[in-house]
Write a structure and sequence with these properties.
single chain; alpha+beta; rod-shaped
């Protein structure tokens, strides 16, 4: 399975970091001296604030984690325990400790289910956790994702924007975190092998942000896992999208190349060849989701349609069906032996073909016909008795019954001996007489 690209993770992580940073900066502005008497939140003493200030200056996340732990040990209860939990979240994220980050986020969400910083940190953790996390951690991410999605407009209302966050960043954070939350629902369903639920979730993600090439790849993966023949075309479309789309939030070029190799193989296996693949890639590049009537015809469907067409053609023209059957029998290493044993000297039923040429052109005793496709010569008629009358233009229909006297495999040709009476359709016209030029003597 395709590994998660850092490109899909980055916008959501940046959005979550932005929110955590905004909360941290807001708290830093609150010093003991500045806090009015009776304010709901206060530092226990100057020492607690000094500890917090030291944490704010710690650039190294390992050092900051040590200081945070000391703060928690010395001041287990604090008016700023929510901020401390948020700082634990951010520090664990920087250290790559996703499980601990999730536990810290849980602490915040237990007090405030709509805390946007904790919701953001939780939903972004899916990219690290989804393949190996225990079920309880996935359940936490799922709950946070649902909470964020159901309350997105309220959570990201203009009056909820931190003062130190720009308007454009606030809008971008909403788009990134909501699409990540929706993706998280798909990844959790995929992890649990709930493929139809994953399909629905990933489709919604692409409706929210059609540029996510990796989500297109995952969508193709879960549809394929459903093993529903009716959905195979859709799976091919989403793999084609992941391979062809090269705009913002697309898969990296190397990964698109790998998916391109896969779709070429999968498409050829399903369709029976690469015909139409370039058109599919172009169509998928332009739209994340296929139209409702999209379909790639399978090789089985092609074969079935061909057989049906052949049956209809055989019913409409039995002699042509017999001729094609003869050609099938006269193909391969044993063709000459088959001809000698089964056809040579045997009176054949009537066939019809297009006149290609005749010899001689006037009053011919030999005709060359194209029976199978009306264009390629495949039958030569040698008239055993009287010549045909006049001359006929090529392209007309000639029917005959005769006896095979020779066979060639390359180019394919069966030679028949026929009698004039067994030929119908001949419309020979006598050539116009040549006018004699009379030269008069001058007087």
């Amino acid at each position: 399975m395709l590994a998660i690209s850092k490109k899909i993770m980055l916008p959501a992580i940046l959005a979550a970091t932005l929110l955590l940073g905004a909360a941290r900066e807001a708290a830093m502005a609150q010093t003991p001296a500045a806090a009015p008497q009776g304010q709901q939140k206060n530092w226990k003493d100057r020492a607690e604030y000094d500890m917090y200030e030291a944490i704010g200056k710690a650039a190294d996340p390992g050092q900051r984690l040590t200081l945070l732990s000391q703060w928690k040990d010395k001041y287990a209860t604090s008016d700023y325990s929510d901020l401390r939990d948020a700082l634990f979240m951010e520090t664990y994220r920087q250290l790559g400790r996703a499980g601990d980050m999730l536990a810290a986020a849980n602490q915040v969400l237990a007090k405030d289910p709509n805390n946007i910083q904790a919701l953001g940190a939780t939903v972004t953790s899916i990219y690290t956790l989804w393949q190996n996390a225990p079920p309880d951690q996935l359940a936490t991410v799922q709950k946070a994702s649902q909470q964020l999605l159901s309350n997105a407009d309220a959570l990201f209302a203009a009056d909820k924007k931190p003062a130190n966050v720009g308007d454009a960043d606030w809008v971008a954070a909403k788009k990134s975190l909501t699409s990540t939350a929706q993706t998280a629902l798909g990844l959790i369903a995929m992890r649990n092998k709930q493929n139809e639920e994953a399909e629905a979730a990933f489709r919604k993600t692409l409706e929210m942000n059609p540029n996510l090439g990796q989500v297109s790849y995952w969508l193709g993966t879960v549809i394929l896992a459903e093993k529903n023949p009716a959905k195979q075309s859709a799976a091919l479309y989403h793999f084609a999208r992941a391979a062809a789309y090269d705009g913002p939030d697309a898969l990296p070029a190397a990964e698109r190349g790998n998916v391109r190799k896969y779709i070429e193989k999968a498409y050829s296996s399903y369709h029976g060849g690469k015909e139409g693949l370039d058109q599919l890639l172009a169509q998928a590049k332009g739209a994340a989701l296929p139209p409702d009537d999209f379909k790639v015809v399978s090789k089985t469907e092609i074969a079935t349609k061909l057989a049906e067409d052949e049956q209809k053609a055989a019913a409409a023209n039995p002699s042509l069906a017999i001729w094609k059957g003869l050609k099938s029998d006269l193909t391969g290493a044993e063709a000459q032996a088959y001809y000698e044993k089964n056809l040579k000297g045997m009176r054949m039923p009537k066939f019809t073909g297009k006149l290609i040429s005749m010899s001689p052109e006037t009053r011919p005793k030999e005709l060359v016909l194209a029976i199978e496709d009306g264009k390629t010569p495949d039958a030569t008629l040698k008239i055993s008795d009287a010549a045909l009358a006049g001359k006929m233009e090529p392209g007309g229909d000639i029917s005959f019954a005769g006896t095979p006297t020779a066979f060639a495999g390359s180019p394919y040709m069966i030679t028949f001996e026929v009698e004039k009476a067994d030929i119908t359709g001949w419309k020979g016209v006598a050539p116009a007489p040549v006018k004699k030029v009379v030269h008069r003597k001058k007087k």
